[in-house]
């Protein structure tokens, strides 16, 4: 017997039909013209009971080998960080989970206050003055940043470093097809840092914003302060795509002169979930506050002077401004933001730097050991945080495939990235991007390097 | 000091909840992190001081129990579908099945990394491939992209696909027609897709004014965006004629699927003549609204539009294995990172699988019955501007209460005191003092009777003691909040004592 979530018994249906003056349920649809009626059942598998349902879904899930159950060095935007137990405890509270956007603030103080706290946490991490209630992901947040910069500066071009994640740049390109500043690419210098001279040459009085990622896609640490100076000299804004875990240790984009900070905060409190839903975030300087897209929560008082929270600055939003809006975001990723907030509170003021430091040290250790393997050379140069790329003496995809049977996911092979790099004919087929979270132990790293050295030897 | 504040809380009865930052005490902590355990190197060598932040982020210093109690307390100030009826029009606040959560928590799904080899993700790829086909069948169209993260994101994606289709034919029309009842996201999405929105008004029955539409249609029209049933909750009986007119002019039809809960298995957008459809999985297919998200906004298109869908699509090889296909030369490109909101999509899959064709049909049948039942129960209290059979929702106008100095807002706030979530208010904008009511199939007859009784009691109060409504709510954690002040002098983040000290020193 199939599942049914509808409460109506047959007697209820009869009584209700009588109340509305209809003989049959079919009568209720009399206004749907016959020409557009579906005169057969939908061609879908028949429904099943919960027992059968769960068995089937378990069988599907069993036909995957999740990265979380292997010794994984995959990163590139989605990271296998530990999610503390209390995150699930809080996010599964159905008062949070089954509510919608807090349109009735008097009955939604829980989600409103949690968003206010989330905004505060993002401001603290990024060193910015205003943050919104969340975006879908870093890619769409970058597109929104570009639209914001275009609206603010009324300029036609946005200069984007090739060090920005290629998928974020691809989303930006797609969503900029007919609106907002036109993206212009700037290449990387050897060692995977943004080419400063090229950035300077590309930035001019038609530039709405300059975009760099910190650390960049290849793990290199960019000179954000220099990018800020360069952007501001040209009257452009600086957009930084920031990794929020790295901000446990790294200088904040705010103190380095960023005007807009966006990024992906899945690392905090959210499972990898095949890449979604993650957690886009966006923060801006005070002067851009009224151009920030998406929901924003503000503090206010009730009639008795008691503190409370409301959705505010709504005149920016599409449901008020309609065609004059510069963003269409309505639903966001509020529950993912709550998960991140709980994780951040759990880490606390001391725990976040601790987490960042463990990632930093283990990453440095893996890098040092890998570069000692004959045939492995550096692709990313200089200091790195929890990710870096190396060149291998064989195609990176081959190495990844060779190590899966030994229980390792060696990293992201970057052959596909070559098509996204401007002014470079570097093939990248032998480049591997590796990330190290606090879940990877020294013993795992040692075993991995041994297995990798052996695979290279066999190759 | 501590005793004093405790006494204050008790005396006040309804205390505001301190923020997690205000609960911070120096030296407290919850989580710990493994130490690196690798050969020690000076921090300065790994990360030069110039690259490091001067001071740590001022995250709260709290114990684990503090965090759990804090957010548990906040949750009690909130209201969800699991709390009670939530007739928020156009949002389809239906029950979120708990088995979906169990499925989403399976490590085989939640532990997948987007860059792990396709061979290690076969079960998930099969699920996504199958969902694509189910959505095609439900919509009467050909192929889906599961990438868009929300309905509005689906709108933008669909319009970019339409744009690419016109471009491939050497056309570059500039306008998109939208009815005056459209969701606010429609015009915003149109602008982002590079089009100029043009409004078509509603006729006396609440549908698209056909004469006006005829006058607006020419070769410069890229598309018409329509919700059917529309935001007034009525089905546009002229849909076949509308589709014919738009297609004849060279335009395409975009279906805003926000109201799909009315027509599952009854009438398919593809059969109505639409070329692109988006679904809001968090509305139609029971995925939790999460206090604002995450949702998912997959779009489904007619076969001629397939080449333009975003990359990647999930494809099946002849040997039955699945893979992510990036080799799509006419694709508009990616609209988000990775594959989509997979954790949401698999809940939608689970829901469709559980119900099957009969179950989905029953959802729409009962959603429409419920809306008509509530309309019947309250229509003498308000004005129902388009009094016909409604579909899954209807719009009432609270204008009759104006003579008592009471507005739709006051009715909504008073409903809170009755322990219910109010309907959507002041939308659609073409109805004065609008109350947009969508009970969904989730509510039983008794639940609807309670809702109707609350409306009746409130309208009675409006006549006898209107101040009760104007002062409402009085039984909530806070009374009415000063939204004007919040916008005039925005306080958008926690202030810390030292910030205020710094400001004082500076002035």
Structure description:
The complex is a heterodimer of chains A (459) and B (507). Chain A has 13 helices and 15 strands. Chain A is of the alpha/beta class. The mean pLDDT of chain A is 96. Chain B has a domain at 140-354: Aspartate Aminotransferase, domain 2 (3-Layer(aba) Sandwich). Chain B has 18 helices and twelve strands. In chain B, strands 1-7-6-5-4-2-3 form a seven-stranded mixed beta sheet, with helices on both faces. Chain B starts with a helix and ends with a helix. Chains A and B meet through helix 1, helix 2, helix 3, helix 4 and helix 5 of A and helix 3, helix 4, helix 5, helix 6 and helix 7 of B.
Q: Can you summarize this structure?
A:
The complex is a heterodimer of chains A (459) and B (507). Chain A has 459 residues and is of the alpha/beta class.
What's the SSE blueprint?
The complex is a heterodimer of chains A (459) and B (507).
Chain A: H1 10-20, H2 50-62, E1 71-72, H3 85-91, H4 94-97, H5 109-126, E2 130-131, H6 138-153, E3 157-161, H7 166-175, E4 182-186, H8 196-202, E5 207-214, H9 224-233, E6 237-242, E7 260-264, E8 280-284, E9 297-301, E10 307-311, H10 318-321, H11 334-371, E11 377-378, E12 387-391, H12 396-403, E13 408-409, E14 412-413, E15 431-435, H13 442-458
Parallel strand pairs in A: 1-13, 3-4, 3-5, 5-6, 6-7
Antiparallel strand pairs in A: 2-8, 7-8, 9-10, 11-12, 12-15, 14-15
Chain B: H1 2-12, H2 43-46, H3 64-76, H4 98-104, H5 107-110, H6 122-139, E1 143-145, H7 151-168, E2 175-179, H8 185-192, E3 196-200, H9 210-216, E4 221-226, H10 239-248, E5 252-256, H11 269-272, E6 276-278, H12 281-284, E7 299-301, E8 313-316, E9 322-325, H13 342-378, E10 394-397, H14 408-417, E11 424-425, E12 434-437, H15 445-464, H16 466-471, H17 483-488, H18 497-506
Helix pairs in contact in B: 4-13, 6-13, 7-8, 13-15
Individual helix count of chain A: 13
Tell me the CATH topology of the domain at 140-354 in chain B: Aspartate Aminotransferase, domain 2
Query: Percent range for helical residues of chain A?
Result: 25-40%
Describe the largest sheet of chain A: 7 strands, mixed
- CATH fold type of the largest domain in chain A: Aspartate Aminotransferase, domain 2
Indicate the overall shape of chain A. Answer: globular
How large is the share of residues in beta strands of chain A?
A: 5-15%
CATH class of the domain at 140-354 in chain B: Alpha Beta
Number of helices of chain B: 18
Order of helices and strands of chain B: HHHHHHEHEHEHEHEHEHEEEHEHEEHHHH
Average pLDDT value of chain B? 95
Order of helices and strands of chain A: HHEHHHEHEHEHEHEEEEEHHEEHEEEH
Please identify the top-level CATH class of the largest domain in chain A: Alpha Beta
Radius of gyration of chain B: 26 Å
Mean pLDDT of chain A: 96
Based on secondary structure, the structural category of chain A is alpha/beta
Q: Architecture of the domain at 140-354 in chain B in CATH? A: 3-Layer(aba) Sandwich
